[in-house]
Amino acid sequence: MIFSKKFIKLKSFDSKKYWETRYSKGGNSGGGSYGQLAEFKAEIINQFIKKNDIKTIIEWGCGDGNQLTYMNYQDYIGFDVSKTVVLHCSEKFKDDKSKTFLHTDKY
């Protein structure tokens, strides 16, 4: 079946706006970053990092940092589109000099 453009109305989605609004209103990174799913992901990723002797991790979309608490990274740089969450993570991990958080607008 062929659809005419007049019947298809595409909504634009602004990911940066979505995540900034979510975090600034007290939201978190979602279910995959908490509980059993977070633990499962961490187990797989930590095994891979150890097996492959990976020293530095760069993550696009660091989120609220909860998943990061399960990880065994020697050196970590996390980018995010949300200024709110970058400030949150910078404060949360302020005593851990192996972790750096940056807002994507700078790059």
Question: What do these coordinates show?
Answer:
The N and C termini lie far apart (43 Å). This protein has 107 residues and is α/β, with parallel strands linked by helices. It contains 3 helices and 3 strands, in the order ααββαβ. The protein has helices spanning 15-24, 35-51, 83-92; strands at 56-60, 75-80, 99-103. The model has no long low-confidence stretch (mean pLDDT 92). The protein has a 3-stranded parallel sheet with strand order 1-2-3, covered by helices on one side. The protein is globular, with a radius of gyration of 17 Å. α3 (83-92) links the parallel β2 and β3.
Number of contiguous helices: 3
* Largest beta-sheet details: 3 strands, parallel
Tell me the helix content.
Answer: 25-40%
SS class: alpha/beta
Taken from the alpha-carbon principal axes, the silhouette is: globular
Give the averaged pLDDT, no decimals: 92
Terminal Cα span: 43 Å
